[in-house]
Sequence to fold (498 residues):
Amino acid sequence: MAASTQLNHASGTSPIVRIANPELDLLTRLVFSRYPRWEWATFARFGWRERGDGLVISLAALEPPTTGDLDSRVGHVAIQEPYTLRVALAAEKHPLAVGVIHSHPREGVPEPSSIDDDMDGYYAQYLQGFAPSRPYVSLILSQIHGQLVMSGRVFWRGAWHVVKRFSAEPGPVQSWVQGVGPTRMQPPRASTRRLSAAFGDEADSRLRQSTVAVIGAGGTGSAAIEVLARAGVGKLIIVDPDCLEESNLERVHGSIPRHASERRPKVAIAYAHAKAVNPACEIQAFVGSLPQAEIVDAVVGADAMLGCTDRQHSRLAISDLAVRYLVPSIDCGVMLEGQGGSVTGQIAQIVRFLPADACALCRGMVQSVKLHQELMSEEERERRREAARAAAIRGENAAAYWSDEPQLNTVGYLTTAVGALTAGYVLGWLTGRFATPFERLQMNLVAPFLDVTDNHVTPRADCTCRRVRGWADQAQADALISAPGHWPSVQLVHSAGE
Fold:
């Protein structure tokens, strides 16, 4: 018996669908190939992650039709049995979910027709025999007034669930939810009138509906958070494991001396400051680190992510989430260099991590020794330090046991400038007004013409990041990093005073 396409709202499950390039470009060219009047379709593979509020689904690959797989004599989608069987048999050999993506005619709403209902009801049941216990995903695309509009539904654990939100790179994509089209553009706010004048009223509306995750609430992170809050971003997810120290006061926006004496969590300071700037902004603040499971659950639904730490494990985790969960990310950092009593370098680095970009390992951005030391427990660190001291006394190589990394020097004006600039690139992504025109930007603020360089790296063909793009939890065994068991439990900050 075919699975009924009656949608279930009782469970509260609200799937999010993530799509990135190059798959998005390939998909639109394919399903719109018979535009403006006739439909076309393709099977596809999806990764997924189950959270408390539903699934996050990522498009991993298309399984496009070949000649004869679809009936080209009719205007609607008619999939031939050999195509269906070929995709089903392939599903027995991979762990991903399977689904159908098809188009509706130009200016036609992406609302499922009775033919679509019959198709989805059949495939949701049929594919369970080949891909048991996996979601079945059905998406519809259309072009309305020149904009890409999508709707979708997912059959999961015996029930249908409507897709409430799409996140695309490059975005944005408009969502169509059960007869309700894209959210009507709201009048621009007085507080963001200048931004609206520069980017347009539609950009202001998009920012209100956007979610941004910021990993790190120190010098660069606190500056980025303030820029995003002032721009009117609707939701911020802030993550940092540390408490404020007196030496942080020169850099951390929103901090005052009392916060250092109280050892207040940096995320609590960022929470209070962002709320003061933009009371309408929804904020989730976590004392914790990537890739702890609770943090991953929170950030995989974000429209973009900023990396604002100097930690090797954070940078590696951000790169991993960009690849496996298709979260477009951008990482930043600063460093001072000096010689003979003079500052010779004020270095800024901004690194783009889009799903198709080279990962942090391909780019050689991770130092294995430093990463290993970061992930040690404090007890293990002390044992290694003691062994290094003993080796030095014996005249042996102490670095074989422990290698002290010098603390990178940073100052507030530099972290503020780089954090704000990085947030600006994210605003360009969210509004669709401009892209990030580099992969790994480095510049020296005291060098002639800033000594700007863009370091392009071709991904290694044998790197895991080429194989598991969009695989989500189904590539957990290939994750670039996992959280050590000795890390403290994640804490959610519920108020500005925590």
Observations:
- The chain has a mean pLDDT of 91.
